[in-house]
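// run 5 | inverse folding | seed 20
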């Protein structure tokens, strides 16, 4: 379950991460009549948080109608946060530690924390440490106008100084991904998302919030021609644009995970099983690998764990941070030299059937609240599997900041 994903600085401009995460959790509680239930654990997180949100998940849990003895765990793995949360809850269930739990995530660009420079913080703390009146006043003699210049958050890698878009431009050039290919993928993302909303696919997955009823970034009337007219966003000679990149987005999502026995006692249907998960990281700092390429490594390692081939899936949910990033990842798996020399595989993983990829739209169209995308995708994939008796399994892949990736396999 989730609230509609909304473009930042708009409908949710005054909503906090806690407001949104609470709404997503409450939607799950109400849908499955969990009021008064004590769940074994709840794991979730947000990438951009205020310091006051140190206990974001527990505070949200206390407002959704669950038994007050239900714990809450904050965690964060950039854009893979909520999928990582689902894997954590899944592992606890598999180990027999708990019977059921919630996983989710939220993020708000609109309500981003704005802080003052560290030098001002150090000045204030020096004054606080003072034992005498003079020691408390002396630090303020160094106060300067620059101390009052706010420090705004930015989606920039500390190790390279590059934004995610700039980093992806380097990947697109290395893998020779054309602007036309990117615009085509973005177009398909919007058309699939618009069709999914029109057919009612998301009706039981999304609850209204702050007057918003549907994801407001979906453009069902777009075209490759319209997308082709947009200017590059991250480099003058680049190929990434506002149209083939995810927009800054606010939102939250959550899922319920449990043992089959726990679900059966409550007459709840089991849509799918979260069976495998894998995380990876790459060396993007030295330039050896692209920032968003970790899923290229994580997926083959996970396939080895599961004894599966890349083609053994009915659905592929690959997070579209940028259309170029998806295309780079797919190209690596089709390249014999890369698979052999870099991934250490005997041969290429091969191509996937793209008609099975992001069939209800992807992040380019639906939006990408950093901490919420993982469980948005997980819920979508579970519903797809539950609704197709011929389908057996689906693959999930998310790239993240910091050169990391989180992947998972979901089966009927």
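// decoded
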């Amino acid at each position: 379950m989730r609230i509609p994903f909304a473009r930042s600085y708009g409908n949710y401009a005054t909503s906090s991460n806690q407001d949104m995460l609470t709404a997503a959790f409450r939607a799950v509680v109400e849908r499955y009549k969990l009021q008064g239930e004590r769940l074994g654990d709840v794991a979730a997180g947000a990438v951009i948080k205020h310091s006051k949100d140190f206990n974001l998940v527990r505070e949200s849990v206390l407002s959704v109608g669950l038994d007050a003895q239900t714990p809450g765990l904050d965690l964060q793995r950039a854009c893979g946060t909520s999928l990582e949360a689902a894997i954590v809850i899944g592992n606890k269930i598999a180990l027999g530690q708990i019977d059921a739990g919630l996983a989710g995530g939220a993020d708000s660009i609109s309500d981003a924390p704005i802080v003052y420079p560290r030098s001002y913080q150090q000045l204030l703390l020096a004054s606080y440490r003072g034992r005498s009146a003079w020691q408390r006043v002396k630090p303020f003699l160094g106060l300067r106008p620059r101390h009052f210049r706010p420090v705004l958050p930015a989606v920039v890698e500390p190790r390279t100084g590059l934004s995610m878009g700039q980093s992806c431009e380097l990947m697109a050039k290395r893998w020779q991904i054309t602007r036309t290919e990117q615009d085509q993928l973005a177009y398909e993302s919007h058309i699939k998302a618009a069709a999914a909303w029109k057919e009612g696919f998301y009706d039981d997955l999304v609850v209204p919030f702050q007057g918003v009823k549907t994801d407001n970034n979906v453009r069902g009337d777009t075209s490759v021609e319209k997308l082709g007219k947009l200017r590059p966003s991250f480099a003058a000679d680049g190929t990434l644009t506002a149209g083939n990149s995810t927009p800054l987005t606010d939102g939250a999502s959550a899922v319920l995970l449990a043992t089959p026995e726990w679900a059966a006692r409550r007459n709840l249907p089991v849509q799918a099983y979260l069976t495998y998960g894998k995380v990876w990281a790459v060396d993007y700092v030295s330039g050896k690998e692209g920032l968003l390429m970790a899923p290229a490594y994580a997926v083959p390692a996970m396939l080895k764990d599961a004894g599966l081939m890349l083609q053994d899936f009915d659905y592929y949910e690959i997070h579209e941070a940028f259309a170029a990033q998806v295309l780079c990842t797919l190209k690596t798996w089709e390249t014999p030299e890369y698979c052999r020399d870099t991934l250490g595989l005997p041969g290429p993983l091969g191509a996937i059937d793209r008609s099975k990829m992001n069939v209800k739209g992807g992040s380019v169209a639906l939006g990408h609240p950093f901490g919420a995308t993982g469980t948005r995708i997980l819920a979508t994939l579970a519903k797809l599997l539950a609704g197709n008796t011929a389908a057996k399994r689906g693959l999930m892949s998310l790239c993240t900041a910091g050169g990391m990736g989180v992947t998972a396999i979901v089966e009927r």
